[in-house]
Amino acid sequence: MQSYADVRFRCFGFDSDMDMESVRPTIVKSKSDSIHQGDNRKKKSTMSSRGVLIATDSIDSIDFDVVETFGRSPKTPPIHIDLQHGKFIKFQCKCFTDLNLTKCECKFEGSDSPLLGAPCSTSKIAIDETSTDDGLPNEISAPYEVPQFPIEQIEKKLQIQRQLNYHYLADKHSVTGDFADESVNVVDHELVPNFQRVSISGEDTSGVPLEDLERASTLLIQALEMRSRYMSISEQAFPTTTLRFLKTVHESQRFNKIQYEDRKSIAGESLIRKISLPMILLPPRDHPIHPPTETSNPWDIEFPSDTNYIIKTVNGVFNIFQSEDAKEPLLPNYPKLKDFCNDMQIMCTMIADGPLKSFCYRRLCYLSSKFQLHVLLNELRELASQKAVPHRDFYNIRKVDTHIHAASCMNQKHLLRFIKKTLKNYANEVVTVTKGQQMTLSEVFRSMNLTTYDLTVDMLDVHADRNTFHRFDKFNAKYNPIGESRLREVFLKTDNYSNGKYFAQIIKEVAFDLEESKYQNAELRLSIYGKSRDEWKKLAKWAIDYNVYSTNIRWLIQIPRLFDIFKSNKLLNSFQDILDNIFLPLFEATSNPSKHPELHRFLHYVIGFDSVDDESKPENPLFDGDIITPENWTDDENPPYAYYIYYMYANMTVLNQFRKQRGLNTFVLRPHCGEAGPVQHLVCGYLMAENISHGLLLRKVPVLQYLYYLAQIGIAMSPLSNNSLFLNYHRNPLPEYLARGLIVSLSTDDPLQFHFTKEPLMEEYSIAAQVWKLSSCDMCELARNSVLMSGFPHMMKQHWLGPNYTREGVAGNDITRTNVPDIRVAYRSETLLDELSNIFKVHQHPHAIAESP
Questions:
Q1: Pair 432, 444: CB distance under 8 Å
Q2: Catalytic residue flag (residue 600)
Q3: Which sign does the torsion angle of CA 373, 377, 380, 385 carry?
Q4: Which of these CATH numbers, 2.40.50.100, 3.40.50.410, 3.40.50.11240, 3.20.20.140, describes 337-808+816-840?
Q5: What does the pLDDT look like over 760-818, one tens digit per residue?
Q6: For the whole model, what pTM was predicted?
C-alpha cells in the first residue's frame, strides 16, 4: 500500500557574529511506501526526502538533525556541517522504520556557487534511534510549539531569522555576470513557497462531457486569440502567461515543451518549472523603494525632429501618408470596421452558447471554492509572512486610484473651504461674463444672495444621496455647486474666463495631499469634448502655465459621448467633426512637435483615453459593417457605444504605431464599461480595452467573466459609487471577482459626491475591509493590482513593486515592497496555469469542431 507522511528536519545555523544559534526550519514532505512482511503486526516503511540548505554570510556551520519521521520524534544527535559563504547544499535522506526502530541515512552534496555545479563534498551519515514518543502524544499532534527558551531569546532568534531571510533574498536577486544563465532559475523554482495546495486527480476534472470540454476549449482559445490580436496591433498589454499558451497552438515545435500531465503534477511547482522561461533577475539594490526625486523642470521634454507627413482620414480613421500624392498609408495595420463587426458577432454568439456558459460557470464556481479552501489552509501562513517583513504594512505600500475624475477629486469640505478662501482673497477678480457684462467673484455670489458666512456643505449640495439611485441625470446635476452651473464653470473647468486658474489651484492642493501621504497616487480624468479644434491646445496650456504636475498624478483623457447634444445645438455637422477635433491635433503634435510645443509636453504625462456617459441610455447595441461612416453620420441620434469605442480604438491604434515609431510614449484605452446597459459593452471592452472601469455586468455573463480572468484584464471598481447609482453595496461582485483571481482594484470615481474624508481612497479600502471582512493579504493584493494596471511609468513601478515585477509568479513579487506574501502570488500563478492547461490540453482546431457530427 501507499500512504503519505511527513519527514521534518531542523537546521541550526551558528552565527559567528552574535554567538548564538539561529533557527532555520526546513520542512520537506515526502512519499512513504509501506511494505507488509509476514503478518500485519510487523510493518516496514521507507521514506525518501530531499531539500536544499542555504549558507549565508553570517552562518559558519549548520547542525542538521531529523526531528520527526513516521509520526515520531526521535532524539537524534545533529550532523555538523561546515559551510562557506554562498554554498548551497543539497541533501537526500532515506528513513526506514521497523516497529520501534528508526534509521535514517543522509547524503549531502554541495557547491561553492548557487549554480550547483560539480559536487565539492559528499558524506553519508546513518542514524539509529529508538522512538521516544511514548510520553509525547500532544507534542506530535498539537499544531503549536511549547516554548523551551525565555521569551527574549526566542524573539532574538526570530529577529536573526528575519535578517537572514532578507540577506538571502538580496543575495538571490544580485546574481549577475557569469552566473546569469538558465541554471539560476532552477534554484529560483526550487524555492517556490511551501504551502498547502489543493490538487484534483483524474483524467478529466472539468465536470462536463468531453465533447463539451473540447468545444469550450476551442471557443475560448478563439476568443483569447482575438483579444491578443487587438492588443498587439494597438500596442497595449497582454499577459505573457496566456500569450505563451496561445503560441503553442500554432507552433507545434514548441507544443511538446508543455506537458499536460495528470492534475496531481499540474498543481504545484512542477508545472511552473515546465512552463516558465529562463529569466535573469535584477538586483533590488539598484531600485530602492522610493524613486529618485525629480529636480529638473518636468516640462523639459526632448523634441524629436519634424516629419511633415501628410495626415488624412479614411472612413473615419486617420493615417499617415508620405506625400500629398501618396495612395498607400504608412501605417495601414488596424482592424477595419467590417472585421470588428464580424468579431463582435462571433463574441456575442459565443457568450450565448449554452454548453460554454455551463462550462465557464462551473469553472468560476470552482475558482471561488478553491480560493476558500486556500484561505482556510494558508491564512495563518500568509499572515506570518507579512509579519516577518520589517517596515511594510498596508499603510505604506503603493496604491493607485485607477478611476477618479479631476472635476470631483476633492471632497465636499475641501471644495467648500477652497470656495470660501478664494472668495476672500480674489473677490474683485473678474471670473465670468453674463449677458455681455463682466462679473467679479463677489458679484456672482451677490447675485445669488450669498455670503461666505452662509455657505455650508449642505448648501453646496454636491453629495449623492438615495435620490440619485438609477437617476444619472440627478447625479450629473450634483457637479453644480449650489445648483449653479456658473460656479461649476468658475471652479471646476479648465476652459473659462480665468483660464482654469481656480481649478488648477484646487488640483494642486489635492496633489499636495497625495504627496504628503507618499504612498497614494491617482490617475485623474480630464475632459476633451470634441466641440472645437483648439481644446487640446487650451488644456495643454492650462497644465503648463499653472504647472499642474505631480509625481503622484498621471492624466487620462475622458471623451463624453454627447454627439446628439452638440448636434442639436448646431455645434457639429457630423460625427467626423468630433473625431477631427479629438485626434487630428494629436497626430499633428506627433508629426511636428515643434509646431505644437505645449501639447507635445503635456502628452508626455497622458496615459490613455476613457469614454464616459450614462451607459443605461437606450441604444441599438449591435450594428453591421454596412453602418454609415462618421462623415455621413449627420442625424441627431447618438451613435451606439460600440461605434464610439471602435473609432476611438482605431484612431488610437494608428496614433500609437506612429508615436512608437517616433520614440514617444503610447496610450491605452480604459473606458467606463459594464456599469449598466447591455452586455455588448463588455464585449467591446474585452476586444479593444486594456483595462475597464466598473464591470458590474460581468456577474451576469459567466463566459465573459471567465475570459476576463484568462486574459487578466484589469477592472477598476468603485463600490461606493455603484452603491449610490446602480448597485447596493452588499450585492457588489468585487469580493467574488477577487476570490476568483480577476485583476480588480479599488477606486473612488468621484470623491466629491461619494466620500467624506481627506483620504477618499483609504476610505474606500476601509469600508470594503469592514463590510466584506477582507484580510490584510486581500487589501495588499488589491493595492498591488492597482499599481500593476495603472499607467505610471515602468521605472516607477520597478521601485514600487520590485525590479522584476513583470516576471510571472513568485519571481515577480517582492514582499518587502508589496507586502503580498509569496504564497498568495504562487497560488494565483499556479491557478491560472491550471486553468489554461485545462483548456489547452484538449484543444482542437475550429474546423474539427465544425466537422464533428
A1: yes
A2: no
A3: negative
A4: 3.20.20.140
A5: 999 999 999 999 999 999 999 999 999 999 999 999 999 999 999 999 999 999 999 99
A6: 0.75
